[in-house]
Amino acid sequence: MAYFNLSFLALLLLLLPPLALLLILYLIVRPRSVKIPIKNRHVFITGGSSGIGLALAHHAASEGARVSILARSVDKLEEAKNNIQLSTGIDVSIFSADVRDYDAVSKAVEEADPIDVLIVNQGVFVPEELEKQGLDEVKFMVDVNLIGSFNMIKAALPKMKKGDSVPRSIALMSSQAGQVGIYGYTAYSASKFGLRGLAEALQQEVISHDIHVSLIFPPDTDTPGLTEETKKRPQLTSIIAESSGAMKAEAVAKKAFDGIKSAAFIVPCNLEGALLSIATAGMSPQRSFVMAFVEVVAAGLVRLVALFFQWNWYNGIHMWHAQNEKLNYFRSNFDSTALSFYSLYFGYIWVAGQQLLAAALHHLVHCKGTSYTAAVGCGILWFFESLTFTEGGFGYRIRTEHHLAFGIWYCLRKLVFLPPPFYLKLRLLSFQGIWYVKSSLLTLMDTGSCEIILRIKRFGISGLFFKTYVQKN
Ligand SMILES: NC(=O)C1=CN([C@@H]2O[C@H](COP(=O)(O)OP(=O)(O)OC[C@H]3O[C@@H](n4cnc5c(N)ncnc54)[C@H](OP(=O)(O)O)[C@@H]3O)[C@@H](O)[C@H]2O)C=CC1
Ligand SMILES: CCCCCCCCCCCCCCCC(=O)[C@@H](N)CO
């Protein structure tokens, strides 16, 4: 009995602090939780003719809202209007305006019904390193994403304040790149970080009018905008952005509306987004006492996870540059016709030396017999290849086997000895592999002094291999 009482007491003592914290948070979180209705309300979406905005419009219509969309292209607006009407039977009002043009935006708001839910979603993104990017593009992103949002909100606010006594919402489409700066997104991230300042301050200004601000943070989302973007996105931007995966526009729209309806200030869209939101909670309001509890309790741990992400990203950036340096070295050496064979020859010796050194170091550090043998084996194969490169058949026989052995050894080495990000390293590896094959072929073709016969031959179960036979004229 006494034993039971004691353990009961211990349990109570253990539970008391978290329960007390929950209670305190329940009492203090501000602004208070509120529900924003969508059905029969007027939802106005900028950038509603494409991608996430279009998915938001569909979603709002399917929940029985009256929907208006604003964008520049009338054709795209008409098409969106017809699509939504066809699938939901809801009539959509369309407004053609550039958010950068305050007068045009005011006119649209004037013509529209009073707005209950304003979703400022328009956005443009042209990723590039700042050094290469034109200032016109920087200004373009800041103008459309940030100043355009100011124009829209400033135009809509007076009428929104005067509405009936039902809670209203202003939602802003940010991006996970608006929570953490990402390589290639200096201007884009800045424009989206700007929205956060706008939103935090605005919430304090409009709370007394029962208007509630939401900030939505999607990861990469499959939209026409993203398709365009990925055509010119720096490889590193993609590698880092991929840490958060990709979503469908409909899924983002669903998360966005869940957030808007519960008047959440921060609206993450996936698991990484939830982590990111806890890591960057800062001084943002939090209406949910449960989420507030998670933020308080998990803060230290999530910060640690964030630092691991940074570790991963900076390693990726470092490796990418190292790889690029090698690439440039070979490229510049391959350019000259006379030197091309020799540079390839020296290039291989150089790599062979590297491999042998790596193998030796590896052995010193790990003392693992098998990987040592494989590594040395590969190194020797590299070396042989470099010696026999200009001799024709022999070199290429070795090359085939060496590629297989090298590939397996490399994968094993990456898998066993180098922890995350495995996929990142594999990417760089395949990048390197493809480059080796491509550049050697290109060089040989460039010289014009040799005849190339490219044969694809199947080796039993080992798959497809490229064999190149070179003969000097
Ligand atoms: N796709 C993604 O990976 C992610 C996107 N986001 C954000 O989501 C939002 C929507 O992106 P997404 O759906 O991919 O983009 P899309 O390019 O597919 O669509 C953009 C929409 O904005 C409109 N628009 C663009 N410029 C203006 C302007 N100056 N004035 C008025 N309307 C304009 C476009 O119409 P028109 O050209 O006719 O004007 C279109 O309707 C953006 O704010 C973006 O930053 C956030 C995270 C990830
Ligand atoms: C505790 C820490 C957890 C960290 C998880 C971090 C994941 C961050 C990835 C950032 C992805 C940015 C995508 C931007 C997409 C976008 O806006 C463009 N496609 C343009 O539209």
UniProtKB/TrEMBL annotation:
Which PROSITE patterns did the record assign?
ADH_SHORT (PS00061)
Q: Which Gene Ontology cellular component annotation is one that this UniProt entry carries?
A: endoplasmic reticulum membrane
Pfam families per the UniProt record, alphabetical: adh_short
**Enzyme Commission no:** 1.1.1.102
Where is this chain primarily localised?
endoplasmic reticulum
GO biological process terms, alphabetically, are: 3-keto-sphinganine metabolic process; sphingolipid biosynthetic process
Swiss-Prot/TrEMBL keywords = Endoplasmic reticulum, Lipid metabolism, NADP, Nucleotide-binding, Oxidoreductase, Sphingolipid metabolism
List the subcellular locations. Endoplasmic reticulum
Superkingdom, natural source? Eukaryota
The record's listing under SUPFAM superfamilies reads: NAD(P)-binding Rossmann-fold domains
In Gene Ontology terms, what is one molecular function of this protein?
Answer: nucleotide binding
Q: Which InterPro entries match?
A: KDSR-like, NAD(P)-bd_dom_sf, Sc_DH/Rdtase_CS, SDR_fam
**Pathway it belongs to?**
Sphingolipid metabolism; Lipid metabolism; sphingolipid metabolism
The EC category is oxidoreductase
Q: Which reaction does it catalyse?
A: sphinganine + NADP(+) = 3-oxosphinganine + NADPH + H(+)
Instruction: Please state which protein family the record places this protein in.
Output: Belongs to the short-chain dehydrogenases/reductases (SDR) family.
What is the recorded name of this protein?
A: 3-dehydrosphinganine reductase
